[in-house]
Amino acid sequence: MVKPFVPQLVYVEPGALEYPLGKQLMAKFEDMGIEIRQTTSHNQIRNLPGDNDFQRYRMAKSTLVVGVRKTLKFDTSKPSAEYAIPFVTGCMGHCHYCYLQTTMGSKPYIRTYVNLEDIFEAAENYMKERAPEPTRFEASCTSDIVGVDHLTHTLKKAIEFFGESEYGKLRFVTKFAHVDHLLDAKHNGRTRFRFSINDDYIIKNFEPGTSRLPERIEAAKKIAGADYPLGFIIAPIYLHEGWKEGYKEMLEKLEAELPDKAKKDLTFEMIQHRFTKPAKNVIQKNYPMTKLELDESKRKWKWGRYGIGKYVYTNEEQEDIKDTLGSYINTYFPEAKIEYFT
Questions:
Q1: Closest CA to 173 of 239, 270, 107
Q2: Per-residue pLDDT tens digits for 101-133
Q3: What is the CA radius of gyration of the chain?
Q4: Fewer CB atoms inside 10 A, N or C side of the chain?
Q5: 128 burial level (CB within 10 Å; 0-12, 13-18, 19+)
């Protein structure tokens, strides 16, 4: 069982103490006896303990920075939402394949932002621009927010903010099972709570530091019991020996455990494993013993957004993934919606 995240080291930006949440977190971490350091900016964390890059990277992943989000222009999001909403950046998980390793670059520490009213106000403006169309906000483009929310309750406040909104909807995805504090949030059905799931081989070999599949399914049952709309992201879909059996078992377990009412309005998103040249270099530096298959010659080259190319599975493999997992989902969850495969 993965324990809830507790940072080994906390940095606080001076401006964060001008906000109620900043003061609360400072008091909480002092009470917990965690070392607290000052930093001029959440983008400028220097002198992290460690004798080499390997040690400093691991220290950064257990360092929390309490800061103020100054950029309130939201990025347009992935296929799942109109905008990314920035509450947290970085993650305490150690998933070998994660794209955050390259996007975070030299800043793999976790940043949580305390100026929630500013962020909510910006969200309100985006909603007004699109009204009466609904606007979906994705809260996990740059983090796994559930992994840190038992400390901050930022996500809980966001769920309740969107619960009261007329046109806003919130979405996020997690690999963590620490959801108990979110069960009584007044979500009014406006937040879709998604869990990232994978077969045992992938979780065991490539997702250290995250909750195991039975824990995630148990948490999904609690979330269904609290009447949240529920979804699952199968990602990354990774071809390994026995993958068809592995994914079948995963979906069988899910079907056996989920209550019937949760199966009515269920969504699935499917994302194949991909990597870029820079990502491969970073992964091999951060996880030198990884078993992750990163052989470009076995993949198809695909131009991505922003002109960055990536290596994906061949067309035949993609068809096989789509047909195989699609048929499993249709068999076990006939009322579910597959939102996309990418």
A1: 270
A2: 777 777 889 999 999 999 999 999 999 999 999
A3: 20
A4: N
A5: exposed
How far is Cα of residue 305 from the mean position of the Cα atoms in its chain? 20
- Greater model confidence, 77 or 324: 324
Task: Specify the long-range contacts of residues 281-284, CB closer than 8 Å, at least 24 apart.
Answer: 282/101, 282/102, 283/96, 283/97, 283/101
Provide CB contacts within 8 A for 46, sequence distance 6+: none
Question: What's the CA gap between 69 and 123, in Å, rounded?
Answer: 13
For residue range 82-99, list pLDDT tens digits in order. 999 999 999 999 999 998
Phi-psi domain of 20 (left: phi exceeds 0; alpha: psi -120 through 50; beta: other): alpha
At 48-71, the pLDDT tens digits run 888 888 888 999 999 999 999 998
- Rounded (10°) angle between helices 315-332 and 243-257: 20
Say how far apart CA 194 and CA 211 lie, in whole Å. 14
Q: How far apart are CA 109 and CA 106, in angstroms?
A: 9
Going by C-alpha positions, the residue among 322, 308, 313 that lies closest to residue 295 is 313
Contact (CB, 8 A) for 229 and 263? no
